[in-house]
Amino acid sequence: MSSVPQPPVPPQRPHGHARVEPFPFPPRPAVPPSRRTLARRALRFAREGVRAFGATLSTPTEPGTPLLGQAESSWVRRIPYVLALILVASLLPVTVMVLINDYGVNGGIAGLLATAQTAPLLMAVSRPLQAWWVVLAADVLGALVTINPVLAAGRPWPWTPMVVVGYLGLMLTVGLREQRRTLVSVWLVTGAAGFALELSGGSRGPGNLHLVLFVLSGVVLLITGTLRERGDAQRRLVEQETISEAERARRTLLEERTRIARELHDVVAHHMSVITVQADSAPYRIEGLSEAARKEFSSIASSARESLTEMRRLLMVLRSENTEGERAPQPGIDRVQQLVEATIRAGLPVQLSLAADLGPVPQAVDLSAYRIVQEALANVVRHAPGARTRVSLSRSPNLQWLIILVVNGAPAESTSPMSPVETSGTGHGLIGMRERVRLTGGSLDTGPLPDGGFCVAARLPLTVRLP
């Protein structure tokens, strides 16, 4: 018995999980913006355009660059050409007709004069001064052609109304591009040409258009020149502020580098020098050291010397002259005794003489006094190990000065087997001392002594007097 094939049975879904076919919703039609939305957009676009146009108009451009040529929008860049084209298209046919009908000028000559008086307005967009020469020459030539008193009786002369309108448009471009001296020259030449023609041909027309053109051209040049100079001043102000900000940042960086270099030299160099001396003198101060321990101390001293050398190189990079460091109160005179004790532990015999009552000490003087003593002791440790040193801090008899004295003798070679940490210095320590003393308005004297020692004498005012 043959079997009839049955259609496939779809798999049964569990109860509660019925398949839901997606309903094909038709696409929602785009809703056109309302009139109010369109009006708002148009108003916002107009405001932005006017603002950008004003900013661009007051920004000076280089010679040969079209007006508004630096604008971002291409439509704004086309505005001067559109306006010039409209002006030329309006004035050219009217000028031709007026010259022929009212002044009796030949048609060909009228066409040439009208073209020379109006067409250069297109060139004025990028080269206004050159266009002015052409237009002025054409206007003067037109006045000479229409000087016939019989045909032109009772009509405007030496300038026609079309000449006045075109010339004022030209003055607008000249005033936005040229310097003040050029604008004054253009205005004076305009007035001189008009008055000269008026005197030579006689006053035959109403209105004294030569005087009207002279006054109106001066007003246009004054307004546009002021607008251009204002934009130029704003641009220079922005450039100056940028330069000043960059210079201020550079000065701040140099001051910070100087402060870091000074503190690094005063603090790290001192402690590294003490470490070097202690590592060098340990085998002679501590009995019963093994050979391995002696080598370890020697390695520590060598590493410390290398660190001092690298730090000196870093200081030469960071050090900057003619800058003032900050005067934040850090260590002061009250920590000088701890500084001397640490130096004594390094093997340097130091005697401290500290006045019992120094009275109120300004913060800048307090910090400078500590740093000067610290640097002086560090120099003794580096260059004269084992030398007897005397440190004295006292007040002057008139109670106006703090006297700092650090005096050391010659290196005690017979009692100290250590070699000097440094045989030559960079001079940053003495430079730092002088900078600190100068900042407080004091004085500093340093120099070698006849017995082979060295003396550092500083006088700091107890009332800070800035230089």
Strand order of the largest sheet: 1-2-3-5-4
The strand count comes to 5
Low-confidence stretches: 322-329, 414-418
Relative helix content: 55-70%
Q: Major β-sheet, in short?
A: 5 strands, mixed
Count of runs of 4 or more consecutive helical residues: 12
- N-to-C SSE string, H for helix and E for strand: HHHHHHHHHHEHEEHEE
Task: Name a few traits of the molecule.
single chain; about 475 residues; alpha+beta; five-stranded mixed β-sheet; rod-shaped
Commentary on this structure:
The chain is of the alpha+beta class and 467 residues long. The protein has 12 helices and 5 strands. Strands 1-2-3-5-4 form a 5-stranded mixed beta sheet, with helices on one face. α11 packs antiparallel against α12. The protein is rod-shaped, with a radius of gyration of 46 Å.
What is the secondary structure topology, with strand pairs?
Blueprint: H1 35-57, H2 74-101, H3 107-118, H4 120-123, H5 128-145, H6 161-177, H7 180-201, H8 209-285, H9 291-318, H10 336-345, E1 350-354, H11 363-383, E2 389-395, E3 401-408, H12 428-440, E4 443-448, E5 454-461
Parallel strand pairs: 1-2
Antiparallel strand pairs: 2-3, 3-5, 4-5
Helix pairs in contact: 2-3, 2-6, 3-5, 5-6, 5-7, 6-8, 7-8, 8-9, 8-11, 10-11, 11-12
Tell me briefly what this model is.
This protein is 58% helix and 7% strand. It has helices spanning 35-57, 74-101, 107-118, 120-123, 128-145, 161-177, 180-201, 209-285, 291-318, 336-345, 363-383, 428-440, and strands at 350-354, 389-395, 401-408, 443-448, 454-461.
